[in-house]
Amino acid sequence: MRRVVVIAGLCVAVAAVIGAAAQVRTGTLSIYFVDTEGGQSTLFVGPSGESLLVDTGNPGERDLGRIAETLRTAGVTRIDHLWTTHYHGDHVGALLELAKQFPVGHFYDHGTPHAGDRIVSAQFMSAYEALTSGKRTIVKPGDKVKMAGLDITTVAAANQFIRRNLSGGGGQNASCAGVKPKDESAYPDPDNGDSAGFVLTYGDFRTIDLGDLTWNGELDLMCPTNRIGTVDLYLTSHHGLEKSGSPALVQALRPRVVVMNNGTRKGGTADAFAVLQEAAGIEDLWQLHWSYNVGLENAPARFIANIDEPATIAGVLTTPPPTPGAPPGPRAGGAPAAPGGPGGPRGGGPGRGAGGAAAAAHTPAHLIKVTALQDGTFTVTNTRNGFSKTYRPRP
Questions:
Q1: Which domains does the chain have, with CATH numbers?
Q2: Which side of the chain, N or C, has fewer Cβ within a 10 Å radius?
Q3: Is it the case that residue 277 has pLDDT exceeding 70?
């Protein structure tokens, strides 16, 4: 009788283990692309409920509130992993205040800011180093974030790039041919090029986030060998600015879906759109904002999370560009354009555009959500209109 009880107990224990494993296998990965008006904040919630937050948007209550609301909606009460791509204000703006509201388990970043960067805030760095003491990892290419059910591999950090092949990588990158480096010597913000980026894999689903890695860094990462392989979802480098998103990167990754974390006037430039339009295999582009930089060349409206009223769009598209030196004219949302300037951590005040003008704050701010399964199926949803599209695994 005792043997029967023991065997029965073992069977129950094995069944519990199998049940737990099945729960992980049938779980989902959720990704929330938060609208930070041309900054970045992306939340990953893994199949076990573990959380990874990448960047914290701009300083001020606006982005802090949006990120906090997203965390609460996703059921996150503790940020298990907080990854900072680099130290510009549109990526670390809400970090210190957010950490007061949500405990953070561990921090990840590329280490010391680039010595030549003129817009990283020394005040922020001092506070950040105090906050992260004893629970900070300075990542190097090849390092992993240990998160249940996921493989998260660092591929770029501090202008160093992975030199071993990930699964599916290792082939010669034909897309490097004819792609020339850019002169980045005049950029005042070289910490972009030091961005810490990773490839995240959940079963057969793969995505990549390279922060604001610039064009030349992309070439160092991808040429002459594509060590990454392909991905299902690509978050545009650097908000869809022409300083990043080279054909050598985009064409080699062969993403099925692209998400662009642009603002109304920051990112989403014509050159970036041209690269995406010429890349084979892209099924859809989803945008956090309608981009006034390309006018009618935006993705179809159902794929765009935040759009101004039609009358505002028409007014902007039909208004001649301002004369150089003239006072700022109307901007999206009907408010006068404000000169961009540092706010909190330097490197772009809230919604600051590429040309320095502050972008309109949309209320409410809508996000793009992705739900991925282990078999490679994933669904993208525009929370503005509820439009969803499901992408089945590649053959």
A1: 27-317+340-391 (3.60.15.10)
A2: C
A3: yes
